[in-house]
Amino acid sequence: MNAREEIREPARTVPVRHEADVLVVGGGAAGVAAAVAAGRRGARVVLAERTGALGGLASGGLIVLLLSLDDGRGRQVVGGLCQEVVDRLDALGAAVHPPPREWGSADSARVEAWRRYGLVWGRAPQVVRYAVAYEPEALRVVLAGLLQEAGVRVLHHVLACGVAREGGRVSAVIFESKAGRFGVRAGAVVDATGDGDVFTAAGCAHEHEEVLPWLWFLVGGVEDADAAAAAGAGFRTPDPGRLLLPWGATPKQHRRIDPTSPEDLGEAELACRARVFEAFRELRQRPGFARAHLCRVAEQLGITESRRLLGRHVLAREEMDRPRDDAVALTGHWTRAGALYWIPFDSLLPRELSNLLVAGRCISVDHRVHHATKEIPACFATGQAAGTAAALAVAGGIEPATLAVPSLREALRADGAILDPPDATGPAQGRME
Ligand SMILES: Cc1cc2nc3c(=O)[nH]c(=O)nc-3n(C[C@H](O)[C@H](O)[C@H](O)COP(=O)(O)OP(=O)(O)OC[C@H]3O[C@@H](n4cnc5c(N)ncnc54)[C@H](O)[C@@H]3O)c2cc1C
User: Fold this and answer.
1) For ligand 1, atom 5, which residue shows the shortest CA distance?
2) Neighbours of 47 (CB within 10 A)
3) Residue 188 has pLDDT above 90, yes or no
4) Which residue among 5, 92, 188, 374 sits deepest, i.e. has the most Cβ atoms within 10 Å of its Cβ?
């Protein structure tokens, strides 16, 4: 965009409406995990979210597949809050996933059965993964419950649009709202906006990607969802009459967009919604879809990546399968069975600031590692790590960036996070039957 004219905004003071030990910006998987982890450790936590709902892409984006909590070799590598979320979804009857005895199995019938739910990806030879298909509204209810139990103050409909910096720290984040601008003061801040809005406003180094837009949708009234999924029409969901359609624009249909540009986003939303409607009308022509209806289109575009922090460490592809004693989260790779990344604390820390942490899809990793760390289980794991670090630092009267990593790792393990794959510690940490 070329700004031909500029307007000088008058300097202004804004009221501080809230004070917190830990402020988490963004209520997606990473932000909720950060807020719950910090709240459970006794911190006064405010979670600020620009929409009226929790879950981000994992609910409103209809990306309703946790890919994956394992490493593709039958070992669970993401636990902690992500596992708690799965347990709570299970208790509501709102999730479907392979049992532990099937993880890592190459049995072709089992692989095909779970592939129909969208839970098996990657090249042959494929194996069954510990991945989970779930209901988006159930996830929202589960996340809200976790936040409430952890005593987190949730502010909806507030957009972080600036920061107040004092030296090498963020002393407050400025929000825009219908009630005007205001600040939230905090001892530590977690940027879980997905797009790195807080670290960008604070002037931290980052990379910026342009991507093809996606818009996933759900179709109801399907006669035989299993047969439709077998024929490649979409994925089965926990609700037997529905299919999940992971619709994405091809380069012929749409250009790559800058996911932080309102002009690009607005134009892509309109174009993709029209394309999704066309795709649904085509689907109606297939056998078994005569009574199908479009039951839900994602509320937001599927944006795989936008800004990524250039932090104290940029985790690179070459570091795959390389254990680290400063890891605060692990993740497998959804398309590469057997691959494993140890995510260091330094990938959550900007170089420039001492009390800002970053969690979720905008952490400091290279483009190829991002393919793995952007996945929802990994976002839960880095969120839990960031929130735990923030709470421990504030309680200890120190800056998060100076926290001793061994004590953070000890706290995370105590809270169920997996930092050592089972064969590194002897007995399996994954849940086995
Ligand atoms: C097309 C596509 C397919 C994918 N497929 C899968 C899959 O099958 N399985 C899987 O596990 N993962 C998948 N992913 C990845 C995964 O969905 C996301 O990377 C993950 O959900 C990101 O979580 P997050 O919490 O980091 O960010 P988000 O979910 O983006 O959450 C960020 C939150 O911050 C809020 N926010 C943003 N800016 C501000 C601001 N300035 N102020 C206040 N609030 C703000 C947003 O409203 C949002 O709620 C896919 C992603 C895409 C786009």
Assistant:
1) 63
2) 29
3) yes
4) 188
Shared domain for 239 and 151, answered yes or no, is: no
- What's the DSSP call for residue 345? G
Q: Write down the residue that tokens 């009308």 correspond to.
A: 281
Q: How far is the CA of 432 from the centre of ligand 1 (A)?
A: 30
Residues 311-327 have pLDDT tens digits of 999 999 999 999 999 99
Nearest Cα residue to 28 out of 5, 49, 9, 42: 49
Q: CATH number for the domain including 181?
A: 3.50.50.60
Alpha carbon nearest to ligand 1 atom 14, residue: 375
Please check whether residue 9 lies inside any domain of the structure. no
- Domain span holding position 232: 217-297
> What atom of ligand 1 comes closest to residue 383's alpha carbon?
25
Q: 379 phi and psi, to 5 degrees?
A: -65, -40
Total structural domains in the chain?
2
The alpha carbon dihedral of 175, 180, 181, 184 has a sign of negative
Other residues' Cβ atoms within 10 Å of the Cβ of residue 113: 19
Distance CA 324, CA 254 (A): 41
Taking the CA of residue 360 as reference, the ligand 1 atom at the shortest distance is 26
pLDDT tens digits, one per residue of 46-104: 999 999 999 999 999 999 999 999 999 999 999 999 999 999 999 999 999 999 999 99
- The verdict on the CB of residue 63 being under 6 Å from ligand 1 is yes
Q: Say how many Å lie between the CA of residue 379 and the centre of ligand 1.
A: 9
67 lines ligand 1 (CB under 6 A): yes
Given 297, 315, 334, the domain boundary residue is 297
Q: Using the 8-state DSSP alphabet, how is residue 325 labeled?
A: T
Closest CA to 139 of 302, 296, 29: 29
- Per DSSP, helices labelled H in 53-187 are 80-91, 108-115, 136-149
Q: Give the separation between CA 215 and CA 28, rounded to whole angstroms.
A: 17
Q: For residue 116, name the pLDDT band (cuts at 50, 70, 90).
A: very high
Q: What is the pTM of this model?
A: 0.97
Closest CA to 60 of 150, 146, 143, 131: 143
Q: Is 103 exposed, middle or buried (0-12, 13-18, 19+ CB in 10 A)?
A: buried
**336 phi and psi angles, rounded to 5 deg:** -125, 90
Q: How far apart are CA 304 and CA 191, in angstroms?
A: 17
Residue 78 near ligand 1, beta carbon < 6 Å: no
